């Protein structure tokens, strides 16, 4: 094993395992050399596909997966429903369903068929990426942590299913022993990977059923990739959910590995950043339009002619009142504005394209909401005392009223309206003012 190689650990979680495929895509793009991959439950299934290093097959499987590729819900249950349960009361139906579920277990023969088709045991045994899995032998009540060389030839598929054998599934038996999902011993087998003498470990983790063993190994460096938003349920094999999970894994992976930056969005600073440089140069300088300049100073609560440091300092102070405090000012302004406008999150944005996405979303919202200015009740409510609840108003409502008020009004006259702005709204307004200034010809 080369010291430059990484050990990849994949946790269990059913359909959430699609997230791990996205992380693998990020690892490939960032050229991380893998020396071993160990998984529990669905993590073991993904680990097998990664070890055989056939990316296209793995992505084809996850991109097309449905519940019928994993479970056979149609034979016993459908027959019983047609022949018996449909003719009885709901209580009898419920009792019969639960009896089949918990006595016989769910039939996962479709999963076995798909693994047999997709996974090449010979390719995994000959792979430079070592493979391992975790399961539990409930016959002897002992956990089994197995590397590929510990698994008898011809039984890899059996042990993959043993690693993913949840109690609701049909019993998984190998050589007279019954096995249970490895999550009941260690759902995130970092310690097992450390035993394979890897000092650099990448662990892919998300909330899921299972236990987690403490890691006692010393002198190891662990990079954790976690989901930044909720994934679907354990058996949620909806195609849109799977697609989103793969994309989220890819983006969270790319950000964890330093290829992308951002707190909420995923921004690439290494390509197409001409607008960013112009925006940085403009930010903090006086706006050319005096009306907009007056509104800017009112938003920042600056009452005198500012010097060159006043506007940047006021922006930094306002940023401290948001969830983006202690983060870079320029990128934070862009991300806050993106959130205010509802710019789609799960995309890999070059920074200049993100500027375009801001303007595109702003134009869409303006086109959909211009009629707000024709509603006198809305206008009146915005200028009522600050005690009113304004959470029900969208950002675009504030923006339309902000750009429509006269710039020659004094700060005192603007205050009844501006005091209703949250720090995020104020910073978004300012960002859009400077963006328009940056793009002015």
TrEMBL record:
It comes from the Bacteria. A motif (GXGXXG) lies at residues 12-17. The keyword Hydrolase applies. The active site is at 41 (nucleophile), 181 (proton acceptor). GO terms for molecular function: hydrolase activity. Residues 8-194 form the PNPLA domain. GO terms for biological process: lipid catabolic process. Keywords: Hydrolase, Lipid degradation, Lipid metabolism. This is Patatin. InterPro entries: Acyl_Trfase/lysoPLipase, NTE, PNPLA_dom. A motif (GXSXG) lies at residues 39-43. CDD domains: Pat_hypo_Ecoli_Z1214_like.
């Amino acid at each position: 094993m080369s010291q430059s190689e990484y050990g990849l650990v994949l946790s269990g979680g059913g359909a959430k395992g699609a997230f791990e495929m996205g992380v693998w895509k990020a690892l490939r793009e960032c050229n991380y050399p893998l020396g071993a991959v160990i998984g529990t439950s669905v993590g073991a299934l993904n680990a097998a596909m990664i070890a055989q290093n056939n990316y296209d097959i793995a992505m084809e499987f996850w991109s097309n997966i449905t519940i019928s590729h994993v479970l056979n819900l149609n034979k016993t249950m459908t027959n019983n429903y047609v022949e018996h349960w449909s003719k009885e009361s709901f209580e009898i139906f419920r009792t019969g369903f639960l009896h089949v579920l918990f006595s016989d277990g769910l039939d996962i023969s479709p999963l076995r068929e798909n693994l047999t088709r997709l996974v090449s045991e010979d390719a995994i045994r000959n792979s430079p990426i070592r493979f391992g899995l975790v399961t539990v032998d409930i016959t002897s009540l002992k956990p089994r942590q197995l590397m590929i060389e510990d698994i008898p030839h011809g039984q890899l598929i059996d042990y993959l299913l043993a690693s993913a054998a949840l109690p609701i599934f049909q019993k998984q038996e190998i050589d007279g022993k019954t096995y249970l999902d490895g999550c009941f011993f260690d759902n995130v087998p970092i310690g097992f990977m450390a035993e394979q003498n890897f000092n650099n470990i990448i662990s892919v983790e998300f909330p899921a059923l299972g236990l987690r063993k403490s890691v006692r190994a010393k002198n190891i460096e662990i990079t954790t990739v976690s989901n930044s938003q909720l994934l679907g349920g354990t058996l949620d094999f909806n195609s849109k959910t799977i697609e989103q999970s793969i994309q989220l894994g890819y983006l969270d992976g790319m950000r964890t590995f330093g290829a992308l930056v951002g707190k909420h969005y995923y921004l690439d600073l290494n390509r197409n950043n001409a607008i960013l440089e112009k925006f940085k140069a403009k930010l903090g300088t006086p706006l050319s339009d005096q009306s907009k300049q007056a509104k800017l100073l009112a938003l920042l609560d600056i009452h005198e002619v500012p010097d060159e440091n006043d506007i940047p300092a006021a922006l930094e102070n306002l940023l401290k009142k948001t969830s983006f405090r202690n983060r870079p000012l320029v990128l934070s302004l862009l991300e806050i504005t993106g959130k205010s406008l509802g710019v789609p999150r799960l995309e890999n944005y070059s920074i200049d394209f993100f500027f375009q996405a801001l303007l595109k979303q702003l134009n869409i919202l303006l086109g959909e909401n211009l009629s707000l200015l024709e509603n006198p009740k809305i206008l009146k409510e915005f200028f009522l005392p600050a005690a009113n609840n304004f959470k029900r108003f969208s950002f675009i409502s504030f923006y339309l009223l902000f750009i429509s008020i006269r710039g020659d009004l004094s700060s005192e006259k603007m205050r009844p309206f501006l005091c209703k702005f949250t720090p995020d709204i104020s910073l978004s307004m300012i960002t859009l003012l400077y963006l328009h200034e940056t793009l002015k010809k």
